[in-house]
Amino acid sequence: MAGRSSRRRFLEATASLTGILAGCKRSPEEDEGPRRIGRPLRVYGERSEFEKSLRALPTTKILEVGQSYTPLAEVYGTITPSALHYERHHSGVPTIDPATHRLLIHGMVERPLIFTMDDLRRLPSISRVCFIECAGNSHAGYGPRDAPTVQLSHGLVSCSEWTGVRLSLLLSEAGVQSGAKWILAEGADAAKMQRSIPLEKAMEDILVAYGQNGEALRPEQGYPLRLVIPGWEGNANVKWLRRLKLTDQPYMTRDETSKYSDSMPDGNARQFTFVMEAKSVVTFPSGGQKLAGAGFYEITGLAWSGRGRIDRVEVSTDSGGTWQDAGLSEPRLPAALTRFRLPWRWDGREAIVQSRATDETGYVQPSHETLVAVRGANYEYHNNCIRPWKVLADGSVTDVAG
Amino acid sequence: MWLVRFGVALVCAGLLAQSPKYGVGRTPSPEEIRAMDISILPDGTGLPEGQGTAAEGREVYARRCARCHGPKGQGGDEPKQSPLVGGRGSLKSPKPLKTVGSYWPYAPSVWDYVNRAMPLDRPGTLTHNQVYSLVAFIFSMNGIIGENDVLDAKTLAKIRMPNRDGFVPDPRPDVGKKK
User: Fold this and answer.
1) Which helix (H) or strand (E) holds B35?
2) Chain B neighbors of A252, CB-CB under 8 A
3) Alpha-carbon distance A402 to B22, whole Å?
4) Residue A21 above 70 pLDDT?
5) For the domain with range A66-270, which CATH number is right: 3.40.30.10, 1.10.1040.10, 3.30.1120.10, 3.90.420.10?
6) Least buried of A133, A213, A362, B111, by fewest C-beta within 10 Å?
7) DSSP 8-state symbol, B107
């Protein structure tokens, strides 16, 4: 008796357990008997096949010259995946064997030096998070504001943790002569990209970097060696770095005269406009997205300043009539992307959404109108103006001109 | 006495600052430096031997440059922003045309850039004479020199570009200052 009774209890328990399991089934697959075992271990990972974020390529034919844009609306947090870091090349991406790569430091130094990659990795290293932004970022958004998505309007900024040797350390090893004021930095790409950089900044915080987000630099980010100049325009962060020459004057190369200079209404052009000033942009809601209907959403976006930390980001959802402080993600690092977030209940009516950043120097991101009033309509680079997005009643989001 | 000690300390600090701390890396030979140092100062220092005229440059231009920059330097469809000629007096206008003639401030920089980076599909394949003659042709199209003027390291360095004084230092922050 006792045996039958316990057997019945077992059967009842099993039946109820099966019922419970059936009630919390996770996928149809589990209903189909034996489950398929997953993929084995592998030596190098890839993202899920369901993730499709890509850089946007320009519509030009010659893809060795130009820029690809980071999908800012599709990245989380503040670090840009290395595979999605924006690109800007002037002569294609060279293939460089690190075993043969050399960095020469010469010119106005006591001791010219050549470093191999192994030499550089022996020296004391540091890591720091900072953004790199192309001076031409938001160029399309400056005049007619005709970039339809945040990827195309602001996607020439990315943020990484960079690892390498302080440039000031290498310069002390070489011994800088008195009278030296500038450094010519040269890349090993086919065009031997050159920029002149003030020595003062080198002594402050320039990094000769070989690491990016825990791995070696990506080829399109300068493998095996690049300059990282916190807060300064991307072009000066010379990639595929092969030579540094100390001088008493700038070299006035093509990329610091005919390009990357800013034309003013009086016909003059500002030169050596290195710092990328405080800027922010809403990435949700932003152009090309579609809201499912009225109700709760989290407004989010990115803010950054080449002059230091972001102190404040305000968001307006009523065409700039009122502004609310957004929450800022910590840590807020100098010259790094800072994520901002603001809870929002959309009432289903048309809304203009925009953000305004203030950095630790008290600089407040200007409006488009303010910039044009001072710099004129032909101002090309270093556009850091406020960028509004329009949410239409049907939930679709467009640029304001659209 | 105090002053002497202070002076000695200063000299020592100076010497320490000037001596290598890690001793990593090696001294390059003068030949290695020469082979890598292709930079050219705006006063022409660094320009190599060689020469050319616009007449010689015309033929090289047609073969190596016209496809992108247009037969007369007016620019092509792609890459954009490639016009080499014209635009003088346009920099204050609503549609400024920035070219070698209207915008570039230093003649040696033009030589340097053509030598380093052009032609786009095969940079570094022009001879020094070809670069001198191409720069002469571009300058001649802009009315900066004559068709038969010979460009070499000396004559190139002496050219004063039309927009030589068209650049000013960065005055920012010009907007956005806290009120």
Assistant:
1) helix B30-36
2) 41-42, 105-106, 109
3) 59
4) no
5) 3.90.420.10
6) A362
7) H
